[in-house]
Amino acid sequence: MFFSQAFAQDASGGASGFGSGLEMLFLFAPLMVVWYFFLIRPQRAQMKKRQETLTSIRRGDQVVLGGGIVGKVTKVIDDNELEVEIAEGVKIRAARAYIAEVRVKGEVVKTEAAS
């Protein structure tokens, strides 16, 4: 008698299982959309802005390195490295990826045309 009751309960529970799976899909789909618009898109925009800031660093900019060292860019060595003066006469090479902040933008370097 115990087994017949268990089979009867199992048979009725199987029919409602499909509906609950579909309901879960309708519940999670809007959550994923909200997650995309509130987390993923702003993070991509922030990463793009940081990349633009790093590529626009030029001589004369005051920068803060990842360790908190503040210095002035004296030379752009290549796309990945900069020469930063952290004290008078003390220059170090730093990777662009470790620049935490650009505080003061330097002046545009004017090129003289050959006369």
UniProtKB/TrEMBL annotation:
It comes from the Bacteria. GO terms for biological process: protein transport. It holds the Pfam family YajC. Belongs to the YajC family. This is Sec translocon accessory complex subunit YajC. One of its GO terms (cellular component) is plasma membrane. It is a single-pass membrane protein. It is found in: Cell membrane. It comes from Agrobacterium fabrum. The SecYEG-SecDF-YajC-YidC holo-translocon (HTL) protein secretase/insertase is a supercomplex required for protein secretion, insertion of proteins into membranes, and assembly of membrane protein complexes. While the SecYEG complex is essential for assembly of a number of proteins and complexes, the SecDF-YajC-YidC subcomplex facilitates these functions. Part of the SecDF-YidC-YajC translocase complex. The SecDF-YidC-YajC translocase forms a supercomplex with SecYEG, called the holo-translocon (HTL). InterPro entries: Preprotein_translocase_YajC (IPR003849). The chain crosses the membrane at residues 20-40. Keywords: Cell membrane, Membrane, Protein transport, Translocation, Transmembrane, Transmembrane helix, Transport. The keyword Transmembrane applies.
